[in-house]
Amino acid sequence: MRDRPGVIVYVTRAAPFEWELLLFDVVGEPGYEAIVPGGGIEPGETPEDAGVREVLEETGLEVRILRELGVDEGTHFLHAMPVEPADDEWFLGDDEVRCYWAPLDGKVAVWGRRGDLLPELRRQRVVAYITRDSTKGRELLVFEIPAEPGSGVQVPAGRLDPGEELEPALRREIEEESGLTGLRLLRELPGFEEHYPTRYENHGFHLVPTDDLPDKWDHIVQGDGDDAGFVFRYRWVPIEPGMRLFNRRNPVIHRLLENPVLG
Predict the structure, then answer these.
(1) Which residues pair with 63 in a beta bridge?
(2) How many domains does the chain have?
(3) What's the pLDDT tens digit per position in 115-145?
């Protein structure tokens, strides 16, 4: 088994807090554990074709390729997801290979150098800043969770699913968490990630409603995320530089007071 073959495939699935990575162990061989699927590229194959074939041969799982993460020393690193839901654990052959999912939390260690591009899989997250102009000035739509008073004042936000693009994910999260649709997207906030470091790759967006909205309302969160079923209590608040969101000072809030360029 080669440490750095022609193609290496990071297969992920969505989990409540982090993605999970597909790995396999060769049972009874202590030196071959936590292996990322990969192998050689055959004549006439594209890296993507080789990646799909290798994952199927080594784990029995059918996947589709989402993107190429990069090429390093001649090895193509690919990101893929299962075509259909997979079990948490399964065995191949005469129980010779054990396949399983491991949390992709920054602590996962994989065999050899097959994990060299794992940092490229950092999960993306979108944050929605929805504003309106009123007689009180520019206001921001925020919510609190009555069942969790310690969670603080928040705005709609959530993680991307594998293969999801930023704007569709943004609109999905807003609809699931607030019930709102048809908002006008003004811009992505510049410099958001460098001022808002977390374990995710964060993207902040400024949006405005196209219709009049109530001053306050309750919404039951939809979808299959970890906050599904919670009641979010929405209201509008005047924007003040230095105001706190998610229980921390928000260093980009002043950007919402600028007149956005509509393009």
Answers:
(1) 82
(2) 2
(3) 999 888 877 889 999 999 999 899 999 999 9
